[in-house]
Amino acid sequence: MNNKNTEENNNNGKKQNSSMLYIILAFLFLYAFTSTKNFMTTDEITYNKFLSMIQEDQVESVIISSGEIKILPKEDEDEKSNRRKLLYTGNVEDPNLINLLNEAGVDYKAEPIQSNFMSDFIFNWVIMPLILFSIFRFVFGRLGKKMSMGGPMMGMGKSNAKVYKENDIKITFNDVAGQDEAKESLKEIIDYLNHAEKYIDIGAKLPKGALLVGPPGTGKTLLAKAVAGEANVPFLSISGSNFVEMFAGMGAAKVRDLFQEAEKNAPCIIFIDEVDSIGKSRDSQLQTNDEREQTLNQLLTQMDGFDSTKAIVVLAATNRPEILDKALLRPGRFDRRVIVDRPDLKGRIDILKVHSKGVKLGDDVSLEEIAKSTPGAVGADLANIVNEGALAAVKNGREFVMQEDLREAVEVIIAGKEKKDRILSTLEKRIVAFHEVGHALVAALLDNTDPVHKITIVPRTMGALGYTMQLPEEEKYLVSKEELTNQIMVMLGGRSAEEEVFNLVSTGASNDIERATQTARSMVTIYGMTDKFDMMALESVQNRYLDGRAVRECSDQTSTLIDEEILSIIRTCHENTRKLLRENRDLLDKISEYLLEKETIFGDEFMEFVFEKYPELRLKKGKRVDSDKDKKEEDIIEV
Ligand code: ADP
Ligand code: MG
Ligand code: ZN
């Protein structure tokens, strides 16, 4: 029953209507067939007449049923040519009837059992199932239609899943920027798809599958499509989460269909997005999900079993590689891993270039500056920024996108929309200004910190009352202990300034505190930067490609010691920061007043104040030449 239903589900509406008609016809036919009354020539007679017929020896045989008595009269000499008529009369339950029939020597039998049995049988086993079945089909046919709405669903035999098949993919590697390593490792696959014979001749076994791994929005889906585009082969895609939402047993059927379809289309690419939703490690959870497990098994079987002389490559994407079932990663399955990481500065510039191709840019646009102000942003963010920039240009009544529009877009994407009408009281505004200048000043006065790009006290909707933006000149991959300590001091600069100037502690520093504590914690638990714990790992990082959350790996007693160590780092940093600001109170006051007046000041304006007091810094900080600057995920320090 189950199998049949899945098969039937996929018929289209037209076919469904005509089979409804068949069912109704069959029903009518069976009804006619089972009631003899309608199909022989019969006449009703009275019971009296029946009795007299018996006495006059005109009856050959009778059939007695619960409701009626059928009478076959003896052949009449006169009417030989005519057909004998079957007669019937109501059964009055006459107790003497049997005696009479016996006396007259009439054959009699009771038929009802057989006829009832027949019609009951037909009703119970043929008509009822047909009715139930057509109701079932009607309901699920609807459901099936609903499920397949909103996408170019293919007529894929038995499959309802959203399998997208695209034949002419125009996306190429030129559309994917900043993922050179990933592209390099995928080139082999493209060559394989184009020249499968070459590889088969020599006896090489090519990877059947490659797993694209990286955070969301870095272009995994895009890359998979680009592979299909470059190789000029069909692209069959399905999302792992689609499998899971289905009825029992259907996920596995979908996988089968998918591979069947792929064999028809070979050479081609199968792309399974979000493969982690089916490929979750089977032993990692208490409760198993049979459906998912079946689907996974089917996937494994198909990957092992498909015709290796056909050039089919299975690409899959995930941002959680560590939860994947080991069986999926075995040789012969997804044995290749292609890392699709967050783009670096050069990558970001390239991505911005790709996305601004069709956009009219003004002369003053520097994509490099935009890229610099968005460390940690992924391709999807950058695409979004270009588009927001274009929207802003239209809003500002321009025909070209200016740098200003793009800057605004960065702020929209990264810090929430500018909201000029959010009113702060005069005192609040002063506090915010000193707070931000506190951050900026600490950054300017310490060594090896990222230069200040912008300070603003224009509030954003996302909650920040103002922020200081630091920009690394270059990306950096190694960070020293001193640099981390300085970063913490910059984060604590806001609150420290408030304390120095207003002798007041406000809620504005919560985010700073959180980040400073996190940095201090990493110094203690991950980077081995304290004497107390030497090079002992106290935390390990999980979900590297998602949130990168750290998990504690130590005893409770050690935990307490860790907390003490973190506190001591923060306390020292806090004291040093306050001292630094106290010594530079004149600068703090001067720049804060200037900021209050201007609301937004940029890095060079700000540094002029600093250089006035410390001319020697002009050499060091005016044009920075540090070559190994830190690659930081987030350089915007918000209140
Ligand atoms: P993922 O699958 O990794 O979550 P997508 O491939 O869906 O990310 O990327 C979403 C969008 O972001 C793409 O359609 C593209 O516009 C843009 N994008 C992401 N990465 C890149 C990149 N490296 N180069 C160009 N555009 C990119
Ligand atoms: Mg994707
Ligand atoms: Zn702050």
List the helices and strands and how they pair.
Layout: H1 2-8, H2 13-34, E1 42-44, H3 47-55, E2 59-64, E3 68-73, E4 86-90, H4 97-104, E5 107-110, H5 112-147, E6 164-166, H6 180-194, H7 196-202, E7 209-213, H8 220-231, E8 235-239, H9 240-244, H10 250-265, E9 268-273, H11 276-279, H12 290-305, E10 312-318, E11 336-339, H13 345-355, H14 367-372, H15 379-395, H16 403-415, H17 426-445, E12 452-456, E13 467-470, H18 481-502, H19 510-525, E14 539-541, E15 550-552, H20 556-583, H21 585-598, E16 600-602, H22 603-613, H23 617-622, E17 636-638
Parallel strand pairs: 1-4, 2-5, 7-10, 7-11, 8-9, 9-10
Antiparallel strand pairs: 2-3, 3-4, 6-8, 12-13, 12-16, 13-17, 14-15
Bound molecules: adenosine-5'-diphosphate, magnesium ion and zinc ion.
Widest sheet: strand ordering: 6-8-9-10-7-11
The helix-and-strand class reads: alpha/beta
Mean pLDDT: 79
Query: Which oligomerization state do the chains in this entry correspond to?
Result: single chain
Report the CATH topology name of the largest domain. Methane Monooxygenase Hydroxylase, Chain G, domain 1
Distance between the amino and carboxyl termini: 64 Å
Using the 3D structure, state the CATH architecture of the largest domain.
Up-down Bundle
What name goes with the CATH superfamily of the largest domain?
Peptidase M41
What ranges have pLDDT less than 50 throughout 5 or more consecutive residues?
1-16, 142-161, 624-637
Provide the β-strand percentage band.
Answer: 5-15%
The CATH class label of the largest domain is Mainly Alpha
